[in-house]
Design a protein that fits this description.
By secondary structure, the chain is α/β, with parallel strands linked by helices. The protein has one domain: Spore Coat Polysaccharide Biosynthesis Protein SpsA, Chain A, CATH 3.90.550.10. Helix content is 27%, strand content 19%. It has nine helices and 15 strands. Helix 1 crosses helix 9. The longest helix has 20 residues. The chain is globular, with a radius of gyration of 20 Å. It starts with a strand and ends in a 10-residue tail after the last helix.
């Protein structure tokens, strides 16, 4: 059980926990997400945890240097076993690491859990959300921001709920990249309920590549509260957000690099040179790299002042 009470050394216990999830390939993103969050929330006294899929020792050590407050926890074997069932499934569910976000729902002992994907960049504080009382606070997905809904079975976009099949419609659907989860929805029982849905049967009859987003939208239908996309601004949705909310990427409090081009991957960043302009890095990638350099500077300073410098220790 993940709980702030399980860490007796944490004398700054507060009632909000930041939860991230990452694979080894997404570690630079997780480091920037955690560091940028702290940079815009000075004095944050809550918990910080990163769920991972078995990082090697050198990666764990690097994370400890980059963000000493970040507690590392492996994804539970129960979830791994559930995901293994998709290996031989003919369904289009492939991005299985997306399901690591479900680990955030087993955190207890906090009033709020703020879950974030590891391709987020915090550019301003989101502290004002922590005082809200809703059970699940999130931001709309592309379908919702575009004024549409989804068929509850197929998860396909619909112009009107009247067009839904026998299963009905899902309205106010949300992107799962940033979730503020109230304690009413966390703990072992809540986690077990979500875990029970991680089965190929959940995706039968669907025509979607969505993973955790489909599961969470179905499970929490009617219990979600949507807030401005400034709190989760997926760059691939920028045209829809600008048209609907009048927000440009520069206005966002939290940027979400949700496209195929990740700013920390040199291979991704150069794919557009093969001739596909759709893969060109967005100018906002420069803001991510500024945050990455700030993170490296902070890590180097911590190392330098931890003891005598290497040149002085001879």
């Amino acid at each position: 059980m993940t709980s702030k009470r399980s860490n007796p050394a944490d004398t700054r216990a507060a009632d909000v926990c930041l939860a991230l999830a990452a694979t080894r390939e997404f570690l630079p993103g997780a480091i920037v997400a955690a560091h940028s969050f702290l940079a815009h929330h000075p004095g944050f006294g809550g918990g910080m945890v990163l769920f991972h899929d078995g990082l090697p020792a050198e990666s764990r050590a690097a994370l400890a240097r980059a963000c000493p407050r970040l507690r590392l926890e492996p994804v539970r074997p129960a979830l791994r076993r559930r995901l293994a069932a998709f290996a031989d499934s003919p369904l289009g569910v492939r991005r299985l690491s997306d399901f690591y976000c479900l680990e955030a729902f087993r955190i207890d002992g906090y009033r709020k859990v703020l879950y974030g994907d590891s391709d987020l960049l915090f550019r301003r504080s989101v502290r004002e959300l922590f005082d809200r009382r809703e059970a699940l606070i999130c931001c709309g997905d592309l379908v919702s921001v575009s004024g549409q809904c989804r068929d509850a079975v197929s998860f396909q976009p619909l112009d009107s709920p009247d067009l839904a099949g026998a299963g009905g419609a899902l309205e106010r659907t949300f992107n799962s990249g940033l979730l503020l989860i109230d304690e009413r929805l966390t703990g072992e029982r809540a986690y077990a309920e979500l875990l029970g849905l991680v089965t190929p049967d959940t995706w039968r009859g669907t025509d979607t590549i969505h993973t955790d987003q489909l599961l969470l939208n179905r499970h929490f239908a009617g219990r979600q509260s949507l807030v401005s996309s400034t709190y989760n601004y997926p760059l691939q949705m920028r045209d829809a957000i600008l048209a609907r909310e009048g927000l440009a990427p520069a206005d966002a409090k939290v940027l979400h690099f949700n496209g195929p081009v990740k700013p920390w991957s040199a291979a991704d960043m150069l794919r557009w040179t093969d001739g596909d302009p759709a893969l060109a890095p967005h100018p906002a990638h420069a803001w991510w790299h500024e945050a990455w350099l700030a993170c490296l500077d902070a890590a180097h300073l911590r190392q330098a002042f931890r003891g005598p410098l290497a040149g002085q220790a001879r």
